[in-house]
Write a structure and sequence with these properties.
The complex is a heterodimer of chains A (287) and B (616). Chain A is α/β, with parallel strands linked by helices and 287 residues long. Helices cover 33% and strands 14% of the residues of chain A. Chain A has two domains: 131 residues, Rhodanese-like domain (Oxidized Rhodanese, domain 1); 127 residues, 3-Layer(aba) Sandwich (Oxidized Rhodanese, domain 1). In chain A, the strands form four sheets. A five-stranded parallel sheet of chain A has the order 2-7-6-3-5. Chain A has a four-stranded parallel sheet with strand order 11-10-12-13, with helices on one face. In chain A, α5 packs across α11. Chain B is α+β, with helices and mostly antiparallel strands and 616 residues long. Chain B has four domains: 118 residues, Alpha-Beta Plaits (2-Layer Sandwich); 101 residues, Alpha-Beta Complex (Sulfite Reductase Hemoprotein, domain 2); 163 residues, Sulfite Reductase Hemoprotein, domain 1 (2-Layer Sandwich), CATH 3.30.413; 166 residues, Sulfite Reductase Hemoprotein, domain 1 (2-Layer Sandwich). Helices cover 31% and strands 17% of the residues of chain B. In chain B, the strands form four sheets. In chain B, strands 6, 7, 8, 9, 10 and 11 form a six-stranded mixed sheet that branches. Chain B has a five-stranded antiparallel sheet with strand order 1-2-5-4-14. In chain B, strands 3-15-16-13-12 form a five-stranded antiparallel sheet. In chain B, a hairpin with a 2-residue loop joins β1 and β2. The radius of gyration of chain B is 24 Å and the shape is globular. Classes of the chains: A alpha/beta (287), B alpha+beta (616). The complex binds iron/sulfur cluster (SF4). The site of iron/sulfur cluster has 15 residues of chain B, from loops.
Chain lengths: 287, 616
């Protein structure tokens, strides 16, 4: 359902949004489509589309701005992320909802980066762009931009892990390292001591994250208590593990960190790996 | 008799809405998922001893993965091999979430999910219960999945459809207290006719028969493949259907009482039959059956309700045969001909119902991805008029009740997901057990070898050569015969050969096995290096082709040689061995290091195994 775009103007500058800070909605971790539609109508949310620019230009959720994941990852530093937020017209505390069309993993990584520099009022959209469209919700094709806003940096150290943090956590009984890659990749090699919880386990079934009840049960089955700190990583840039981050948060795990540079960095640093070599499990795959 | 829990009850809030298959039993139970989760925790907390947990785990279908006790192979029972689209979809999701994103169809019509973390097994059990499936008694010393010929109901030679009987047996013995702790696993196979099915390599094998208008079976007892194999013995000329349950119960009770519980290597029922001698065992069974018949309450007998398993007029009406001729099935095709024709020729057969066809999906060694499962489920729903499929012991899937008009559509659907390979019913469709991909007992990568054979033979177009068509190739990764190598025309089981200080993966090649009512066990011929298996089979085909005066098929030629009746160059096994000696010779390691590595490994071969669990 595209809104009429007979106007020849290639881009629209939107400044008619509510700026009354006391009215600002505090978003949940995952934002449902009802809430987002409502906020869009009230002009009181910044919707961020992290797909490629071509895709965004073709069609996007109404009022969404474009931030391809690659652009965020280009420098992936707090100052750059701040710059990005400012350019998207997001001031401190303003509600931000992020979406993609890749089962939520790309959106999760972007949303996490916003949270990392202190923009806690960031939520993941519960569904993908494709689903949004299928539901007949509002989309448009004219690119949108907003006037620049000031944003501060207030690093949230609690949600970040680097290689040395992960290494220290390996011997800590109250910390668990979770590898979000698929099972066969995990079996091939992983960070020693890491447990595998493939992203396919937290996602799926229509919405990008399974219902919390299921995820809580998975965690419970694995004997992980809600007070345990979990550090998630995946193959290269923290997208799959970004989704794990949100799924665990949503399910009520208090302390979750993302090792955003993930296994790619771990390997490049020459750190030890654990491998399962005694079986030819790859030959079971029908891929 | 509330303990005799054959009424498969399911938690009402588990979302069971399979309206199209209301009459089908719901085999799974949600509470078994909860109990499994609890027991895993107790095991981790050391409140449950290793052996107790192991037994419990196997009873619930979770087999330890190769040298990695924290992972399981979850075996999903598919009674009679009969599977529905919503079940395939669920298996797709479960394999993505908790396994490796592919599922595997086994030679006993189970579906297996590999490398599932032990802590997630309960979730798999839960998901399966939601669609009526169970892993209960898929492993362990229990009555395993009851097999049924995938052609039952459509086979032109069958006396009647044996599917409802297979399902009634499965339902009666599932969770039945009388078979929770047998001396060893127990297998029941149901055939459709004397040609198809695996009735003679099971503890109990059934072949439908009609005498004077009465339905019944020829019952075979004490067969089975393994390190020592036997074909089953015929109990009596005719067992009427009214005595089927009592006969099965009597056999299981005898085995339970007299079976060997000490020596794990010799505790399958076939050894008991061998020790007692067939005549004595036969007498004991008949006597025990009278006791069973006298002492079984009508209430218990009533639980064995074949009527409950009868499909409600599922069989679609016959079509007008003139409109549905499909001559290509019978005709010669060429490897470079149209792919669709080649697929029709090697993957489709006519049913006894005029106008309907059974199509076979070629799966390399039984593996299928989650995505393929999903699309396939849709195709089955739309294009099979019985809206279900059957797993075959050849590790393929059979989609039945397809009309001629729907075949092209089915083919293009399959082609769109890479499932339209030809040759499912030909020599190229090699069977391979899981081998070193996941099995503790495996010595070689039989699974990959089967795939390599299939790829190579399809590339060579051997599937289009009708003289090779009835030849079967089956491979096991060790002598235990899960790959059913002993009923193959050309079978292989994995081992290791030592040359000096170096080990090489090798297979023992066997000739002349056959299944069906006239099953023959294959004879060991010689050892072949793993990386020479394909060349050796091709050399055998060459030798056969050189024997121009012989008019029969490769299979018939091999059978003759095994019996020492070969005409021409190869007279007998010794003659064959001589001609193959050069190609099967293991070259020195420094000349051909490749011969000392198995498929899927770039490191030197070593034979590592751990305690087997199919025995537990
Ligand atoms: S035949 Fe041997 S290797 Fe193959 S699955 Fe059975 S036990 Fe394992």
């Amino acid at each position: 359902m595209k809104s009429d775009s007979t106007s020849p103007i290639p881009s629209k500058e939107n400044s008619a949004e509510s700026s009354d800070d006391s009215q600002v909605t505090q978003l949940p971790i995952v934002c449902n489509v009802m809430l987002l539609s409502d906020l869009i109508k009230k002009n009181s949310v910044r919707v961020v589309d992290v797909r490629r620019e071509e895709e965004y230009n073709q069609e996007h959720i109404r009022s969404a701005v474009s931030l391809p994941l690659a652009k965020l990852l280009e420098h992936d530093s707090p100052t750059d992320t701040r710059e990005i937020l400012e350019n998207l017209g997001v001031g401190d505390g303003y509600p931000v909802v992020v979406y993609d069309d890749t089962f939520g993993a790309l959106a999760a990584r972007v949303a996490w980066s916003f949270q990392y520099i202190g923009h806690s009022n960031t939520a993941l959209l519960e569904t993908t762009f494709g689903q949004w469209k299928k539901m007949g919700l509002e989309t448009e094709s004219i690119p949108t931009s907003f006037s620049r806003k000031q944003h501060s940096v207030n690093i949230n150290h609690e949600i970040y892990a680097d290689a040395s943090y992960v290494q220290a956590a390996q011997n800590s009984p109250d910390k668990i390292i979770i590898d979000s890659r698929e099972r066969l990749n995990y079996l091939t090699e992983h960070i020693p001591g890491a447990k595998n919880m493939p992203y396919t386990m937290v996602g799926g079934n229509g919405s990008i994250i399974r219902n919390s009840e299921d995820i809580e049960r998975y965690i419970e089955n694995r004997g992980i208590s809600h007070d345990t700190e979990i550090i998630a990583y995946c193959g290269s840039v923290g997208t799959l593990s970004g989704l794990t981050y949100y799924a665990l948060k949503q399910a009520g795990v208090k302390n979750v960190r993302l090792y955003s540079k993930s296994f790619k960095e771990w390997k490049s640093l020459g750190k030890p790996k654990e491998e399962i070599n005694d079986a030819n499990y790859w030959d079971l795959s029908a891929e | 008799m509330t303990d005799l829990n054959v009424e498969a009850t399911v938690n009402s809030d588990s979302g069971l809405t399979r309206s199209s298959t209301k009459q089908d039993p719901m085999w799974g139970k949600i509470e078994e998922s909860e109990n499994f989760a609890k027991n895993v925790k107790h095991f981790r907390q050391k409140k449950l001893a290793d052996d107790d947990f192991r037994r419990y785990r196997l009873q619930h279908g979770a087999y330890g993965s190769r040298l990695q006790p924290n992972y399981s192979m979850v075996r999903i029972k598919v009674p009679g091999g009969l599977i529905y689209p919503d079940q395939l979809e669920k298996i797709a999701s479960l394999s993505e979430a908790f396994s490796i994103g592919s599922a595997h169809i086994s030679t006993r019509q189970n579906i297996q999910l590999h490398w599932v973390q032990l802590e997630d097994v309960s979730e798999v059990i839960r998901g399966l219960a939601e669609v009526g499936l169970t892993t209960r008694e898929a492993c362990g010393n229990t009555v395993r999945n009851v097999m049924c010929s995938h052609l039952a109901g459509v086979c032109p030679n069958e006396k009647f459809d044996s599917t409802p009987y297979a399902k009634a047996i499965a339902r009666f013995f599932l969770r039945n207290p009388m078979c929770q702790n047998l001396p060893r696993k127990f297998k029941i196979n149901c055939a459709c006719c004397e040609d198809h099915g695996l009735a003679r390599i099971a503890d109990i094998g059934l072949i439908p028969s009609i005498i004077d208008g009465r339905r019944g079976f020829r019952v075979y007892l004490g067969g089975g493949l393994g390190a020592a194999s036997f074909v089953g013995h015929l109990l009596e000329d005719f067992t009427p259907e009214s005595r089927l349950l009592a006969t099965c119960m009597a056999t299981i009770r005898l085995f339970d009482r007299h079976g060997n519980r000490e020596n794990m290597a010799r505790n399958r029922m076939r050894y008991l039959v061998q020790e007692l001698g067939w005549e004595k065992f036969q007498k004991l069974v008949l006597k025990e059956r009278s006791i069973v018949e006298m002492t079984t309450s009508t209430k218990t007998a009533g639980l064995f309700d074949i009527g409950a398993e009868q499909e409600e007029s599922l069989s679609p009406r016959a079509l007008d045969i003139k409109t549905v001729k499909l001559p290509i099935i019978e005709e010669q095709v060429l490897p470079d001909g149209a792919p669709y024709q080649r697929w029709l020729h090697g993957n489709v057969i006519a049913q006894k119902q005029p106008g309907y066809f059974t199509t076979f999906i070629t799966l390399a060694a039984g593996d299928i991805t989650a995505n393929q499962l999903r699309i396939l489920a849709g195709a089955i729903r739309n294009l099979s008029e019985e809206a279900s499929a059957r797993n075959t012991p050849h590790q393929n899937l059979a989609i039945r009740y397809v009309t001629a008009a729907n075949l092209p559509q089915l083919y293009s659907k399959l082609a769109s997901i890479g499932l339209a390979n030809p040759g499912a019913l030909t020599i190229s469709s090699a069977v391979g057990c899981s081998g070193t991909t996941s099995c503790n007992l495996a010595i070689t990568n039989s699974h990959r070898l089967a795939k390599e054979i299939e790829y190579r033979f399809l590339e060579l177009g051997l599937d289009t050569d009708d003289s090779l068509r009835d030849t079967t190739i089956k491979i096991s990764g060790c002598p235990n015969s899960c790959g059913q190598h002993e009923i193959a025309t050309i079978g292989f089981f994995g081992g290791a050969s030592r040359v000096g200080a170096t080990m090489a993966p090798t297979y023992t090649m066997l000739f002349g096995g056959d299944s069906g009512e006239f099953s023959v066990l294959a004879k060991p011929i010689m050892r072949v290096p793993a990386k020479r298996v394909i060349d050796t089979i091709r050399r055998i085909i060459e030798l056969y082709k050189e024997e121009r005066s012989f008019g029969g098929s490769l299979k018939e030629w091999i059978d003759k040689i095994v019996r020492g009746e070969g005409i021409g160059k190869v007279k007998d096994i010794e003659g064959m061995k001589k001609l193959l000696s050069a190609i099967t010779q293991l070259p020195p390691a420094d000349q051909e290091p490749e011969m000392y590595r198995d498929y899927g490994n770039d490191i030197k071969f070593s034979a590592k195994t751990a305690r087997g669990e199919c025995a537990a």
